[in-house]
User: What shape does this take?
Amino acid sequence: MNNYDFFIELNNYLSFNFDGPLKLVGEIQGIVFEVLYDNVGTLKAHTAVRLFGDDPYPDHVESAYAKTQAFMFYNLDHENIDLVIDANQLSEEKAFDICQDLNAFAGCLSALMYKSGAEQKDIAERLDEARAAQQQAMIYPDKDELEKPLPDHFLRGMFGAVIGAAVGILAWLVLAIVNYMWPYVLGAVLLCALPIIFYELFSKEKTSSLEISFCLFITTVALLIGDRINWAVTLIRYYAITFQQAYLEVPYLVEDGIYDAMEYYRDYIIMFLPLVILYFIIIRNYITGGKSVIQLLKKKQ
Assistant: This one.
């Protein structure tokens, strides 16, 4: 994860304002923070606070710092406080930890009646006004903005999901030819899982709600196509017809009673039961902020 991507992830939790490409400014419980990289390979959260016009007491700052976990150390110089962390330690999980630490640190100082300086307040207010103006402008976006292309990682992920679906259909067909019931069930489970796995492998990003919905759509379509192909292959084994004829004739054979309707529709239960279970787990994992597929694979490496 590069520096800019980390700032995007961090700001998902903080909801600060960008004051440049690699600097965030925002207010937490009356305390204004600037989060930025310095030139020695560290990330620092800077604030300047005073207590009734006086410099902060070291014991108060130490007490507030004791409530943090992600930061390595802090520096105190008159009213200026820097919370510091090694830039090489930054990750998605660390972004959440930093957000929690800043809330704890600010809450402690705020409870002791500390206030940010006027200069920092002015910076935060200026950026808030700029954000408000930007949001107002977004109500009537420019035509060029509306025609903006999809992000590269989303396009790569879409391609990966389609590849995963194709691999899943092929694996399902092979397993179904070997035997009917348990290999068929295993093939359906594989097809349910592969599109979202391939999406994250190709995009190298954790899936959002929109991307999960796209993978669910691709998987559902692939299940319907794969089941129809399996039935068509079965038909070819008994009749001297082409694959195209077999693929088109499957529903009519069920309708005419040549194929057992109960057996045909039972396959839909076999298909969609693992789909419902898998995507229940995926959506629950997304809501609770759990590990993504790509994060789990990185940990194993």
Observations:
- The chain has two domains: 3-138, 152-300.
- The longest strand covers residues 42-50.
- The CA atoms of residues 49 and 117 lie 6 Å apart.
